[in-house]
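Late entry, evening session. Most of the bench is empty. Finally got around to the prediction I had been postponing all week. Sequence below, unchanged from the version circulated by S.P.
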Amino acid sequence: MWFTILIVRKLRGSEWSGVGIAVGGGLIFGQIAVSLPPYSRIEYGIMFFFFTGIRPWVGAIFLLLATLAGQAQPVSGTVRDNRGQPLPAAAVLVQGLQKGAITDASGHYSIQNVPAGTFTIQASFVGYSMQRRQINVGGGPLTIDFTLADDALSMDALVVTGTFDPRTKLESSVAITTLNSRAIEQRAPRSTGDLLQSVPGVWADNSSGEVGAKVVARGLAPVGNDQVGYQYVSLQEEGLPVMGAQVGFILVDMFQRADLTTARLEAIRGGSASITAANSPGGIFNFISKTGGSTFSGSVRTTGGFYGNNKGLGRVDAEFGGPLAKGWGYHVGGFYRVDGGARTTPFMANEGGQVRANVSKLFAGGRGSLKIYGKYLDDRNTFFKDIPLTNTLTAGYAGGVDPVNINYSTTFLDVSTQIPLADQVRADNLGTGPLRTFNARDAIRNKSVSGGFDLSYDLGKGWGLGVRAKVSSFDQAYIQFQGSTVLPTIPILTPSATLPAQLGYLQYGGATLLGAAAYSGVPAAQRADVTAAVTSALIPSLLSPTYYDAQTGEVLARVKNGQLDPTVPNKLGNYLFSTAPLSFYNTAQDFIWSLNLTKEIGAHQLTFGSYQSRTAIDTRWYADGVITTLSAHPRAVRIDFPQPATVPAIVANDPALNATYGPLFGTGRFNATDANGFSLHSGLAYTFTHNVSHLGAYYVNDIWKANNRLTLDLGLRYERVRQTGTKQGWQSALALVGLGGLDRNPLTTYNTGSRVYNGVLFDYDAAYTVSSATGKPVATQTNPDVNGDGPGFLYDYLSWSAGANYKLADNTAGYLRVSRGNKAPELDYYANNFVNIPLDKKGAIETVTQAELGLKRNGRRASLSATAFYSYLDNALLQLFVISGASSFFTDPTFNASRTLGLELETVLNPTNRFSIRAHATLQDAKYARLTYVNTIDVTNIFTESFAGNRVKDVAPLIVDLTPTYRVGKFSPYVNYRWFSERQGNRRNSIQLPAYGILSAGISGDLTTRLSVSAQATNLLNSAGILFFNGYGLQGTTVEDVAVGGVKRPDGTVLRGTDINVLNALGSPVFARPVLPSQYTASVTYRF
């Protein structure tokens, strides 16, 4: 008798059993149960074969046949599109086993250890329809190749953003747009903000260049602060926010870049963002990176090009990845680029890059996955600001000697100077303290390091675990220019009937000589007489400036007692230009984690979770003043004016007064600027803050599959946000030193108005003693907890979202969702307000209520997503800084509301196999439901106005984006046209920004399976549509307070400087920022 023991591998069982017994000439099987310990991912079946009258080699044959029939086999192949090109990062999955793989750059995949049996294997890739095939495993290795058809709306793609349960777009009850790496490449975006314009319902102002975009989803635009560009939406990487909190200039898109490592973008508008994202009820934009595949692969792309101003750009992207041991994979990539700039600057506009890397693991038996990732970014960027234009907003200002070009000019100048470090200035180190250097060439230096992980794991018995965590460090040196003011070449000290006084260069340090504060040390009995005598003597000198080119020393113009000197050619024209050089240094440390626990109970999937973040941000903000020519290529202007020769008698006859004010008189000259044209050292901002934001959220969600067609979900999210910190107070150099300023020289007026630390450090939510002498707070704290809710300010609120998805057919579904989200103030609420006063007023919790009704249809020739939406933003703060003549003030805080009704349409049409049209459109009616503009602070300019019913500024009622593509052989040429309807330039709706369109085109081709080429031309017709309006720039005018016929006070009189007709008649420029001009690029991509 002969017997054979056969060991067979199989997957997913708990015990091993089986005995086969052969008696006589036949096989008779009996079974006994056997339990053995598991080995790795494999379980064993044991069979005993007993043979009588059969030679041993027959048993060996049975053994071989049984082994071949029963052991696990590999399944491999390729995934390609319908043009035969490989699809890297496509997902291939064996259903039921949850075993899968990701394709490499050649489109190849390999799944090991697939057990014997019949299974369904599927391949999917964002932008292509999922394909399923039935396979029989057991007869040896299998090769299964897939060819995926286009599905540009990605209805079959699994979406992980804004949901607690990954599901396809068709099955989701939210508005989702997905863009894969190929779609992103075709858009050739200039920035993250530019790319997000591919999403219906989203408007982005990306005219500032590569960074600093303003992104508005579904009309949810800031009512007050415009500085934070991603105010109601969350910009994410790997499912977590890029930053947990923001302040002013250290904004999220400064630290996010898309490159070849990006696998796809998932964009959620409204809906479930209220409960799945932190403090961001408007939407989520999540960038997901590639992971390593089953074989080593990668790609390299080189891009070169130029702008219409002949400035060049070059960029190299690279990525590669592959397998590691025991199911691990890795992926590494990044980019580096140099960019001369779409607008002409005297230095390189953008230079730098990033490196991203991850290792990933697919757990045995499809139990889940783990991704560990890191990123290092070091990038230098330029933020393009508004430029001087004609009042028609259609051409550059031509009033100077160097006409401005609306497409290519900037107000940047190449300038550098040294300035005392304002926070280190003390009475005992004047003139000897440390210095800082402003150098315009430094631009914005953004550096960040981050690392994190994303874990999902099937715990068994219906339980699942998801954990994400990330730690980040950010460092930013923001060296830029901001603000636009027009200065008349001839100062005008007296207001007219229609215009405030136009002090020109004197509005900076020189004006201190005319202010009563300069003479505060004079005995009260003499003060009025001394002030009148000294200022009267100074006025002829103040009206006699000489203007020089700061670099060459050339005299550009001279004024004598309020009249141009005819012996000196005027090379300035009627106006100069003034802007603020910013030296803003920001650092941040960020820790974010989230935990999800899911449980399947029948048709319900429950999720319980928590999200926690701690963000600490420190700001050191200095702002100076510089005066330049008003021209296409600004040059710094140095200014001086003569001393009056005769000392007034009231000063000369008093030794004490003569010692203080006598040095103002003589035969020398005052320096209104330093040698480099800086008119004010640290005089326009001094903001030193330490901010900490703790956010803790707890949420629960239920997804109920009521039947095969109907899915319902309901979620609740409770958030607590605690914001703590400190802010330094400041005083002017005039108060610290007197007329001598920081260098104790009364003839250098540019440092008289400097802001320096005053020794007071304000804690959030604390009250302080007020000095009886000055009326200002001092360092003594009287109440550390004004609001009585613990350290700093506490905001807590409950958000919710409910949705339903009904599958009308296999390719058609409708959905309904209603949500209510909340948002605590951004940290810049404290940085930008509370100037030299205690931070004892809590900010407002804004609420966003949304409803949407959508229809999705996936077809071979046509796919459609249509969503009607309603959004209501409530309790939004409006508090504006207003300059009115010689005074400036913050308006009273008011809390306001806006509402938007709209329709989003997204479609892809494929009339033929070669021709396709992708289009999306947004139709929206965004209005202020409640908007009150109030001032009771400045008693000379009291007003109360309601802008209710006005359209929300900047939001276009109609946006259309159309992209037809035609495939010719290996090449696919395309055209893209975007059109934006007329918008409002201010809240008053007195400025309209004209409609405009942008035409772009390109062509891409796959020369081989490894080599691709492409070329793009963006804004072919050099459109100069206006995206941002910043007012007339004349002293005493504002963006809001202009109207035809002027803005009237309650008594019916018209405020000076507010009548648009009067301002236009002056021939001075207005300031606005057009869209970026033409760009032409070509790229070559090699896959290996």
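Two things to note before I forget:
Confidence is low (pLDDT under 50) at residues 1-70.
The chain has three domains: 2-70, 74-149, 180-483+583-625+684-1033+1068-1087.
Will write this up properly tomorrow.
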